[in-house]
Amino acid sequence: STESFIEQVSDDPLIRQVVSDSVEAVDQLLHAEHHFSLFKAKYGKTYDTQEEHDYRFSVFKSNLRRAKRNQLLDPSAVHGVTRFSDLTPDEFEKSYLGLHKRRLKLPVDAHKAPDLPTNN
Amino acid sequence: LPTDFDWRDHGAVTAVKDQGSCGSCWSFSTTGSLEGAHYLATGELVSLSEQQLVDCDHECDPEEYGSCDAGCDGGLMNNAFEYALKVGGVQKEKDYPYTGTNGVCKFDKSKIAASVSNFSVVSIDEDQIAANLVKYGPLAVGINAAWMQTYIGGVSCPYICGKHLDHGVLLVGYGAAGYAPIRLKEKPYWIIKNSWGENWGENGYYKICRGHNVCGVASMVSTVTAAHVTPQ
């Protein structure tokens, strides 16, 4: 449903400049490389090997697309390149989240907060 | 209820911290809530130790085998409040500094800086959450962090967001309407302190729209009340 939603939202009626796919692809790659350079400089990122660097660049490009999609689906926020842009969603979840995901059960001492007045 | 409220304006919130690449978000949410409660009880704002919780808190839910707090491998704020109740409290950050790795417990009972007197779970009603926030201080909340990896600023209000919780954060305030930089859209929102450093989000903070339990933000909310501790 997300994909079809994006097609609807991004398939805007405006006339687009028609360029051949290869030119656009090159342009996007240059764009991504420029962003990746800025990202590495801003967050002090270095990679041990050329393979690791190339892999992280591919993850970065995928996260650029995710940020673009997130911007479409979350228009009242600003989405883009963050310090986590060279991490896959799984790596991000494993390293930076950490809430036990399970049915909400409460320890024996927890009790429900009494309702508070919310008007006046 | 005030239309806008922010505990940062009342001195009840410490600086934004950074959990590093360690799944210890639950400990930051726990200390943030206890720091606020301690401030309300004593007038003293003191940064509390997440590392004590990471190293020493292995509290389990007695009703569910295997759901224990496990340092960098995850935990739950309500379990952590239970642990703090049992051991007497939490030390200062400076006495038990954060390393971002699972370590051997070095808890020193004589250096307890803040104690839990009780904790409660707030219903999913977002007005009740606002009322508990104003009355008891910053709240420990769970959230689905799917949209936070690419978040830079503004009020996040995704059209699609799961409600399964995978991140623990601190609710410090709320606003009646927030204009997003790109689009002028009014959104009442929650103000959330995260633990990914100041160079993430809006100076370390996240804003998410209020009113529809977006990303599950209203489904695991806890208040904590601090006991008066005679300073060591």
Can you tag this structure with a few keywords?
heterodimer, A: 120 residues, mainly alpha, B: 232 residues, alpha+beta, nine-stranded mixed β-sheet, 9 strands, 20% helix
List the helices and strands and how they pair.
The complex is a heterodimer of chains A (120) and B (232).
Chain A: H1 2-10, H2 21-43, H3 50-73, E1 77-79, H4 89-96, E2 111-112
Chain B: E1 5-6, H1 25-42, H2 50-56, H3 77-87, E2 90-91, E3 112-122, H4 126-136, E4 139-143, E5 151-156, E6 167-175, E7 189-193, E8 205-209, E9 221-227
Parallel strand pairs in B: 5-8
Antiparallel strand pairs in B: 1-6, 2-3, 3-9, 4-6, 4-9, 6-7, 7-8
How would you characterize this protein structure?
The complex is a heterodimer of chains A (120) and B (232). Residues 5-19 of chain A have low confidence and may be disordered. Chain A is elongated. Chain A has helices spanning 2-10, 21-43, 50-73, 89-96; strands at 77-79, 111-112. Chain A has four helices and two strands, in the order αααβαβ. By secondary structure, chain B is of the alpha+beta class. In chain B, 20% of the residues lie in helices and 22% in strands. In chain B, strands 1, 2, 3, 4, 5, 6, 7, 8 and 9 form a nine-stranded mixed beta sheet that branches. The N and C termini of chain B lie far apart (37 Å). The model of chain B has no long low-confidence stretch (mean pLDDT 92). At the A-B interface, helix 3, strand 1, helix 4 and strand 2 of A face helix 3, strand 3, helix 4 and strand 5 of B. Strand 2 (111-112) of chain A pairs parallel with strand 3 (112-122) of chain B, so a sheet runs across the interface.
Biggest interface, chains and residues, is: A-B, 50 and 74 residues
First-to-last CA distance of chain B: 37 Å
- Please give the largest β-sheet of chain A: none
**Which value, in Å, is the CA radius of gyration of chain A?**
21 Å
**Assembly category:** heterodimer
Report the C-alpha radius of gyration of chain B, rounded: 17 Å
Low-confidence stretches of chain A: 5-19
Helix content of chain B: 10-25%
Determine the strand fraction of chain B and express it as a percent band. Answer: 15-25%
Mean pLDDT of chain B: 92
Note the total helix count of chain B: 4
Structural class of chain B: alpha+beta
Q: What is the N-to-C order of secondary-structure elements of chain B (H for helix, E for strand)?
A: EHHHEEHEEEEEE
Run of helices and strands of chain A? HHHEHE
Count all strands of chain A and give the number.
Answer: 2
The largest β sheet of chain B comes out as: 9 strands, mixed
The low-confidence runs of chain B, each spanning 5 or more residues with pLDDT under 50, are none
